[in-house]
């Protein structure tokens, strides 16, 4: 979640001083957040500090939030959830762009874009919201707004227990395990339970409609907004070759692979011996 603009020299950026790419220095300790002055005169003139439910001084709230979301994105990158791509907005860490590729099941070949909206009191508030754009035909997705019923999977958001990558895992799961209890789209739930063929036709229509608009430009100028472009050999062919061709090992990697380990087997036998025995 790096910023695309460079701060001006001497600018505080709303209280923060950026000393380099990806680095941020917190503002001076606010009144009342440091070691207390217990003299009677100091107690009389010291302004009251607004209480914070998580113990973080309120003046540090925005910075704590940003750092928390940076940590969440690092966790997401380590999870490597199949079929999910998601990136925070370049303009606000509270807004993430996402897309899910469905590879099997009733929604196979579906490519569905969505947004993740994080509460401004994260991680102490409710669970993040997920909105499909355009809306999709699914029992747990509102057909008018496109909003996913995230609270179905996270009835109470628990700080330091629940994470955004788990929400994205839930986004993926709804296409493989369909739940029709207390639906946001009653029509979809009834069709899935009683008229599966009609449900399949509705889903096919959803997939077709979403795929037809896959190349539409984003409605925002955010540089992190997800964009798809038609196949262009001059642009994409080289990338395709790199993805499909096996990775070539460097000379040092090959050398290490040939000499690592101490267990060896003599040709034509099952007798093991060590490297020292082999050299003797």
Describe the protein's topology:
Blueprint: E1 17-20, E2 23-25, H1 40-45, H2 61-79, E3 84-88, E4 95-101, E5 111-117, E6 129-132, H3 164-173, H4 186-194, H5 196-212, H6 233-244, H7 251-259, E7 264-265, E8 272-273, H8 275-279
User: How would you write the strand order of the largest sheet?
Assistant: 3-4-5-6
Structural class: alpha+beta
Average per-residue pLDDT, rounded, comes to: 78
- By DSSP (H or I, 4+ residues per run), the number of helices equals 8
Cα-based radius of gyration, to the nearest Å: 27 Å
Determine the N-to-C terminus distance.
56 Å
Helicity level, as a percent range? Answer: 25-40%
Q: SSE order in H/E notation? A: EEHHEEEEHHHHHEEH
If you had to describe this structure to a student in words, what would you say it looks like?
This protein is of the alpha+beta class and 280 residues long. The protein contains 8 helices and 8 strands, in the order ββααββββαααααββα. The chain has helices at 40-45, 61-79, 164-173, 186-194, 196-212, 233-244, 251-259, 275-279, and strands spanning 17-20, 23-25, 84-88, 95-101, 111-117, 129-132, 264-265, 272-273. α4 (186-194) crosses α5 (196-212). The protein is globular.
List keywords for this structure.
alpha+beta; globular
Q: What is the gist of this entry?
A:
The protein has 8 helices and 8 strands, in the order E-E-H-H-E-E-E-E-H-H-H-H-H-E-E-H.
């Amino acid at each position: 979640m790096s910023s695309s603009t460079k701060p001006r020299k001497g600018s505080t950026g709303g209280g923060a001083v950026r000393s380099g790419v990806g680095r941020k220095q917190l503002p001076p300790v606010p009144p009342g957040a440091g070691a207390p002055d217990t003299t009677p005169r100091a107690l009389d003139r010291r302004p009251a500090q607004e209480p914070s439910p998580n113990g973080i001084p309120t003046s540090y709230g925005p910075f704590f939030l940003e750092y928390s979301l940076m940590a969440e994105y690092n966790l997401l990158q380590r999870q490597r959830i199949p079929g999910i791509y998601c990136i925070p907005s370049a303009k606000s860490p509270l807004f993430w762009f996402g897309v899910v590729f469905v590879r099997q099941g009733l929604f196979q070949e579906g490519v569905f874009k969505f947004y993740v909206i994080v509460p401004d009191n994260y991680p102490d508030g409710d669970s993040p919201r997920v909105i499909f754009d355009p809306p999709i035909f699914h029992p747990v997705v509102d057909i008018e707004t496109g909003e996913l019923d995230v609270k179905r999977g996270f009835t109470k958001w628990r700080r330091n227990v629940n994470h955004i990558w788990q929400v994205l895992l839930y986004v993926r799961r709804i296409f493989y395990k369909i739940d029709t209890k207390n639906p946001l789209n009653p029509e979809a739930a009834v069709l899935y339970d009683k008229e599966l063929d009609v449900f399949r036709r509705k889903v096919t229509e959803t997939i077709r409609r979403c795929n037809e608009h896959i190349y539409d430009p984003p409605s925002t100028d955010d540089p992190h907004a997800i964009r798809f472009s038609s196949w262009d050999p001059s642009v994409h062919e080289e990338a395709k070759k790199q993805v499909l061709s096996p990775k070539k090992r460097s000379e040092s990697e090959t050398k290490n692979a040939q000499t690592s380990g101490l267990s060896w087997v003599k040709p034509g036998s099952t007798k093991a011996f060590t490297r020292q025995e082999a050299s003797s």
